[in-house]
């Protein structure tokens, strides 16, 4: 591993080695994986939390996790715990899960239902809008209105819940939302129910999880279940005489499918803005192979009751990727969403949520086993790949390797976005 000779100065507040980080960011070699400290260093992990996860829009949940007034979930991002509740007017709200009395954690559970938010320590009580409504023994001069819960920014993008811990969140989210709404709205995720949710722990850095997600170079060799429904020519490939016909055929299928879907009111064209904006995103609706209905083992729908008012099972897969931490696949019968939560330099949680129409009946319209089979298998394969990468990066022999210009363009886009956002934020915080 190459080491830097730059002088190391500690950040006045965090005590971290920001100069070394700045040097590593500055000398990142385009088109290559990152240097080892980006995956291994706990200091850089803390910097990732500060500059990426506390300043950008983070995908944390789907609206069907909180269908009723009083439903809540908690989400931990580094040392910050966030409480998301649905209030009596059905509005989703997010608060720091921190009591305004002496700072106690308010809710310890990951999900549940509550009437008011009651602190377990001295029972200060907040309503679902975060207002302090009750606090005993605080005297005549105590002002309840100065002790409401601290809010966290929240956006519900057609059922996808994003939060931002920054005081001033990136404003371009509104534009991303406006662009994405026509793609997502027809699937009516907000009218779904959660059919299954699985959390897996990966012994690897969150960036390796994201990089792995941004390419399908590894798919043929590792994902026998996923590649049943995905067209191989959708993965990107070095063009040549051996695959010219296959690529041309695939492109024709995409054009024909897009024409059909667009005519049904389903926007399908690719939008590619992963590394060109603060709230990086990408979308595309792609046809699925074989029966072409869903990402299942037999490529047929996993749920007989289709989403929204769909009658056509063959709507392909609408994918939506966001920086820094999510990807989603919307099909005719279900939606599968992935949220990546960093835990430490070498540990990452991936939460996968499968949603079906809220009136679909388990055992009649779908089975959880069939619905989740492809992505449970694929997630486990990806976990192994991430763990292999983490192990290799930790070796003294590791050096940044070259990305394929044909199949790893989006991995590069992730790294470009990451390095750029870190540089900007690091400079601004000095
Ligand atoms: O399809 C996905 O979401 C990613 C990309 C390829 C491998 N991985 C399963
Ligand atoms: Fe919450 Fe005292 S810390 S009521
Ligand atoms: Fe994969």
UniProtKB/TrEMBL annotation:
Domain Rieske: 57-163
PROSITE patterns: RIESKE
Transmembrane portions of the chain: none
GO function terms (MF aspect): 2 iron, 2 sulfur cluster binding; iron ion binding; oxidoreductase activity
Pfam family, one: Rieske
InterPro entries: Rieske_2Fe-2S (IPR017941), Rieske_2Fe-2S_sf (IPR036922), Ring_hydroxy_dOase_asu_C_dom (IPR015879), Rng_hydr_dOase-A (IPR001663)
Alphabetical UniProt keywords: 2Fe-2S, Iron, Iron-sulfur, Metal-binding, Oxidoreductase
Cofactor(s) demanded: Fe cation
Highest taxon, organism lineage: Bacteria
Family designation: Belongs to the bacterial ring-hydroxylating dioxygenase alpha subunit family.
Name the UniProt record assigns to this protein: Rieske (2Fe-2S) domain-containing protein
